[in-house]
Amino acid sequence: MNEASPSTKKDDYHSALDAVRRAIEQFRACSEEERRVLQRDLDELEQMSEKLVSGRVEIVVFGEISTGKSALVNALVGDDLTQVNIQGGWTKDLWHVPWEGIGYCVPGFANSQVVLIDTPGLNEVDGAERTEMARSAAERADLVLFVTDSDLNETEYGALEDLVACHKPILLVLNKTDLYRPEEIQQLLGLFRGPRFASMLDAKNVLTSQADPREVQYVIESADGSTRNEWRKPKPKVEELRTRILEVLEAEGKSLLALNGAMFAADKSDRMAALRVRLRENAAAITIWKFAVTKSLAVALNPLPAVDVLGGTAVDATMVVTLGRIYGIDITTSNARALVASILKAAGWVMLSEAVVSYASSAFKALTVGYGSIATALPQGAAAGYGSYIVGEAARYYFQHGASWGSESPKRVVTQILESTDKQSVLERLKTEIKKRISLNPYAGDAP
Ligand SMILES: Nc1nc2c(ncn2[C@@H]2O[C@H](COP(=O)(O)OP(=O)(O)O)[C@@H](O)[C@H]2O)c(=O)[nH]1
Ligand SMILES: [Mg+2]
């Protein structure tokens, strides 16, 4: 057994375990909403921690349907543990088969275990979910046996590239060599060991096997000299593969486990960070829209002229406080008002013209004894809501950058937001909202 440089390997291993545990802590501190999405990741991290603590090596058998994966697991373990479906069917779930016979033990782990994991086939008809399951099993594998029975098709090649990209150690197994002539086998091996695969596979890691060779006809001679023909199944040939697996494990089993654990933890942490950003941005977008609608309605329905212009600022300030909270930033109402004012100022003439429109129709409303007609309420309300929408987006930018405009001026930020916003569609959506609410509100409506 290879005990080389135990100190460095021990460090790698323990830092991997630490990384997994830290990720678990992070996940446990999640909000409930995050937890709902991330529960499976947390479970997987806990499994990874348990795997590292016990020193379990996972070898995942991966490849297209009917290439002989299940047969290979059987042949390697030397037992009828998994079912080989003659129809070329699939293994429904992942099969975890303990492989004691391999005789490998992770240095320093008396109870360590090697497990072969049989996966359903890649690229099955209607099998997207199972393909996904196979992929995720391969992604957490310490070592992958990539099984094929011919040159790789596009799906297989892509899957191989993906595994290489996530730094999986891979043995490519050309199975069913009993079906090929020797020169055909050489040709295929030449291909897998050739330039197309050179960056993905080490030539030593391209192997052949016959997991379940088909029957061959034997001529049996009896003592009396008579002969008869008999069909017999030859024994599986998996020795070369088995030897290579053991070699790889002995040379680097422990560091493979460490590498895998560390990558797994890093990957999960990234996922969590990405999800946090997504949830936060979602919440921010919903908040902005909600306040924009609120302001639209306030302006469209409120018969008091002054509120049209001034009341909106109170709504905007509350929106800004709410947004700040989403980004973990506490802002007082008076600071929120100041922020709104600076955004409005930065928006310059756009907001000014909105105010003018608003003021003009306020005067009109006052004249019609508090009843604006829908004809004026709609555009006026929508325009006011649009203003809030822009203020919200600008405030969102400000909070995204840690309550600062970063290297930009507020004017530039607001200008960019105005340029990238589809004003017409925001206005239309707001009008739809207003119409919906007004038709539900018996006190508001068209002037007769
Ligand atoms: N001729 C031949 N057939 C094989 C070999 N290995 C597996 N098979 C056959 O290929 C078919 C599919 O095997 P299976 O293990 O179910 O493939 P899986 O879908 O990849 O798990 C079965 O009929 C097996 O008997 C082999 O080495 N030679
Ligand atoms: Mg199978």
- Described by the principal axes of the CA atoms, the overall outline is elongated
Order of helices and strands: HHEHEEHEHEHEEEHHHHHHH
Could you state the CATH homologous superfamily of the largest domain? P-loop containing nucleotide triphosphate hydrolases
CATH architecture of the largest domain: 3-Layer(aba) Sandwich
Q: How many beta strands in the DSSP annotation?
A: 8
Rg, rounded, reads 34 Å
Using the coordinates shown, work out and report the CATH topology of the largest domain: Rossmann fold
The CATH class of the largest domain turns out to be Alpha Beta
Proportion in helices: 55-70%
The ligands bound in this entry are:
guanosine-5'-diphosphate, magnesium ion
**Number of spatially distinct domains:** 2
Strand sequence of the main sheet, in spatial order? 2-3-1-4-5-6
Largest sheet: 6 strands, mixed
Indicate the low-confidence ranges by residue numbers: 1-10, 84-91, 306-311, 366-372, 444-448
